[in-house]
Write a structure and sequence with these properties.
Blueprint (H helix, E strand, L loop, with lengths): L12 E5 L17 H6 L16 H5 L5 E4 L2 E4 L21 E5 L4 E2 L9 H7 L9 H5 L5 E4 L2 E4 L9 H5 L6 E2 L10 E5 L6 H8 L5 H5 L18 H5 L5 E4 L2 E4 L9 H5 L5 E5 L4 E3 L7 H7 L9 H5 L5 E4 L2 E4 L9 H5 L5 E3 L5 H9 L6
Antiparallel strand pairs: 1-4, 2-3, 5-8, 6-7, 9-12, 10-11, 13-16, 14-15
Length: 368
């Protein structure tokens, strides 16, 4: 007796471009006849040698009209894509950037960089994978691996959890199921609460960039030389619109920040640091000048009057030269230091309650 076999249903695949950047020389390649011609012409310093060149040979190959070029980036219409794979052929995409992945995939890594140097990757592209391996180490299904200096997802194993999304240090993993701005354990913090007078003077001098300002002898100009310039280099690199210049000082919106560190690398003053996303007290001043000098150049800098230190019931505040430091391991968030600070220089990162539930669900221990 014959038994009727149910034919296996073939998994639907769609095309995915493993590149989200715009640093591969796209402006120079605009007049090239094909992507192959663009690649053969070579790349210049500062351009990603592994990225999309944006000429659009894949668009011409797509019979379904599922691909288009938007602001130099290839965009694929998932509804139109039939998974034929024509765009992924080597003679169409010489960079091997187009992958055929399951249509129901929810996590994507839009980078194919082969660069080994993290600093070069960060300087070249905001979406570049720095091959830190955090996604690979924390994936419970062993579905993510570092291949040729960039992370790759094995969709046969991926279950669409939040592990790689949260643990990615660069925060480039696209997750269509979860809100990346909510799923995080760290955020950026600007160690400056300046009164904006430095930024005002820089504007009067015609200085418009942080790099220009860093070359000046601000001390000789009776300006704070360790604080925020307010010229916004950090805002330019933020992919999440999480940092803005307000009254001449950069400020981070912790609700939007995902802790990717791009702003920390951009700041020539090294004022931006990554802190745990919890109700932590932080001193928004980095100046190590004597108190008299601080008082002259800034109306909101820490003068180390020691009121906070003297009144802290847990002895969580100490001096580092003329700079006040709060030990987060000892601090119990009693708010006394904020109450007694005459200059309102002690800030607090306030977070919603749900983050603690998320941390517990992810198995993130205190201090991670």
């Amino acid at each position: 007796m014959k038994t009727e076999m149910t034919p296996a249903t073939e998994e639907k695949l769609i095309a995915f471009v493993a590149c989200a950047g715009s640093a591969a020389g796209k402006a120079r390649f605009a007049n090239c006849a094909s992507c192959k011609e663009a690649c053969e012409s070579g790349f210049q310093r500062g351009e990603c040698k592994s990225g999309c060149v944006g000429v659009g040979s894949c668009i011409e190959s797509c019979k379904e009209g599922a691909m288009k070029l938007v602001d130099g980036k290839i965009v694929i219409d998932r509804e139109k894509c039939n998974g034929c794979g024509d765009c992924a052929k080597e003679d169409v995409c010489p960079q091997h950037l187009i992958k055929m992945i399951p249509a129901d995939a929810t996590n994507f890594i839009p980078c194919s960089s082969t660069e080994e140097d993290e600093q070069v990757v960060r300087a070249t592209c905001g979406y570049g994978c720095i091959s830190c391996g955090a996604c690979e180490q924390n994936c419970p299904e062993n579905a993510v691996h570092i291949v040729n200096n960039h992370a790759v997802i094995d969709y046969d194993k991926c279950v669409g959890c939040v592990a790689c999304t949260v643990k990615c240090k660069k925060k480039i993993i696209v997750d269509t199921l979860h809100d990346l701005t909510a799923l995080k354990s760290t955020v950026a913090f600007v160690k400056c609460s300046g009164d904006g007078r430095t930024n005002y003077q820089l504007q009067q001098m015609g200085i418009t960039s942080c790099d220009e300002a860093a070359k000046l002898d601000l001390k000789a100009l009776n300006l704070c030389h360790t604080g925020c310039f307010g010229c916004g280099k950090c805002t330019e690199v933020c992919r999440y619109d999480a940092i803005h210049v307000e009254n001449g000082i950069a400020k981070v919106d912790p609700d939007k920040c995902v802790g990717c560190k791009d702003c920390t690398f951009a700041c020539p003053q090294h004022l931006i640091t990554i802190v745990p996303y919890k109700g932590q007290k932080l001193v928004a001043c980095s100046s190590e000048d004597d108190c008299e000098t601080k008082a002259k150049v800034c109306g909101t800098g820490c003068l180390f009057c020691e009121d906070c230190k003297a009144n802290c019931p847990n002895l969580a505040i100490y001096a580092d030269g003329t700079h006040t430091v709060i030990d987060p391991e000892i601090c119990e968030d009693c708010h006394v230091c904020q109450y007694v600070c005459p200059r309102n220089v002690i800030k607090e990162t306030v977070v919603p309650e749900y983050i603690f539930a998320q941390r517990e669900a992810l198995g993130i221990r205190e201090g991670e």
